[in-house]
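Need residues for this backbone.
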């Protein structure tokens, strides 16, 4: 969703500023009014500036860093330290500059009388709605340290799953990059020297050799054009994927691609179930939990299905039937949700589903890697074999002619 920077006044007349996400300008103003903030200025941040916040680096606050800070907050609060001193202590120990600055600002707002969840909500680019709502539940129930500890567990699980996926994909990506680079060097620098020798033989060259010569000449002469074309194509694709239409089509494609669709659905289902379970276990109402989870699944198609599910629940229906009718989620989710609703242990059933699909994600990734690695080796072997064949064929012709 678009991110808006705002400045204005709260109900006490104090000047406030920050960022907030909303489907549009009117929705952002409505969200601010619900928080008791009257905006004097509201401006959408550019997509370029927003995308830079997501790039890896010191400016981005990862789940791992946020989980570490959250666990420190929970530990100090559990030891009986006041909230403002806890925030000051953790801010002084955090090395991440952006998170340190945000925690210091949150502490100042808490000292001025703001609730913790309200102060966290003004830093939505760092603290997601899940974090803010769980903090609100912890404050209202007097169990903030326990809720924060549960939230730290959740963030650590999310970071652990993402790290396993990144580690598993590192080898095939590195292999693809190195293989492509080696092939480009062969065709650009090595093959032209060999083909010039073949052209000096003054005889008709076989078709594979002619194809190799033409490909090598084209790559050597127009490599810069291909590079520019790849960069421009990547930039245009990225711009298109930031549009509503492009993002929707891409998310629909992820759910239809052979091999990858199952993995994508497993990842989203595990994330959805763990988020719902964590929120429900912390005392967040089901409708609020569904709304928060809908914004965290990362897929527009599934998010729309969850919105319809939320509407059905608001009308008095259970969670399981609308999930089953959508036809998008695995049957296990609706079945376990139905069991959880009947037994009164919905959060426990959802956590079991999350753990089951996290295990399935690992199995699926290992299966894909076991298929991708030999496939990539086969492609490289075919390319190298073609190059060797194209070079050796004219040599065989010459030697056979001499014989």
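Answer:
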């Amino acid at each position: 969703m678009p991110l808006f920077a705002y400045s204005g006044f709260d109900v006490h007349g104090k000047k406030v500023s920050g960022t907030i996400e909303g489907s549009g300008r009117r929705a952002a103003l409505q969200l601010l009014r619900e928080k008791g903030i009257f905006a004097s200025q509201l401006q959408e941040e550019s997509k370029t500036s927003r995308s830079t916040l997501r790039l890896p680096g010191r400016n981005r606050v990862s789940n791992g860093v946020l989980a570490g800070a959250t666990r420190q907050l929970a530990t100090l609060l559990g030891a009986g330290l006041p909230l403002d001193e806890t925030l000051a202590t953790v801010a002084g120990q955090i090395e991440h500059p952006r998170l340190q600055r945000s925690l210091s600002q949150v502490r100042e707002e808490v000292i001025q009388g703001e609730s913790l969840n309200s102060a966290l909500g003004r830093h939505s680019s760092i603290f997601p709605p899940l974090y803010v709502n769980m903090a609100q539940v912890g404050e209202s129930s007097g169990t903030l340290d326990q809720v924060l500890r549960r939230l730290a567990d959740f963030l650590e699980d999310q970071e652990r799953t993402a790290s396993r996926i990144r580690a598993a994909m590192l080898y095939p990506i590195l292999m693809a990059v190195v293989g492509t680079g080696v092939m480009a060097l062969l065709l650009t620098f090595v093959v032209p020297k060999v083909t010039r020798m073949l052209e000096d033989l003054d005889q008709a060259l076989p078709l594979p050799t002619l194809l190799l010569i033409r490909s090598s000449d084209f790559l050597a002469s127009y490599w810069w054009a291909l590079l520019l074309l790849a960069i421009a194509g990547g930039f245009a694709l990225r711009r298109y994927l930031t549009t509503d239409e492009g993002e929707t089509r891409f998310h629909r494609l992820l759910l239809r691609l052979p091999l990858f669709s199952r993995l994508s659905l497993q990842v989203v289902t595990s994330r959805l179930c763990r988020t719902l379970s964590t929120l429900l276990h912390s005392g967040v109402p089901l409708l609020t939990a569904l709304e928060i989870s809908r914004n965290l699944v990362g897929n527009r198609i599934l998010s729309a299905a969850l919105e319809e599910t939320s509407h059905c629940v608001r009308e008095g229906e259970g969670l399981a039937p609308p999930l089953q009718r959508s036809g998008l989620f695995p049957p296990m989710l609706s079945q376990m949700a139905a069991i959880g609703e009947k037994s009164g242990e919905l959060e426990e059933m959802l956590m079991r589903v999350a753990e089951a699909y996290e295990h399935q994600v690992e199995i699926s990734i290992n299966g894909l890697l076991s298929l991708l690695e030999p496939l990539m080796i086969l492609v490289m072997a075919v390319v190298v074999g073609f190059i060797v064949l194209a070079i050796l064929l004219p040599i065989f012709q010459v030697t056979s002619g001499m014989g």
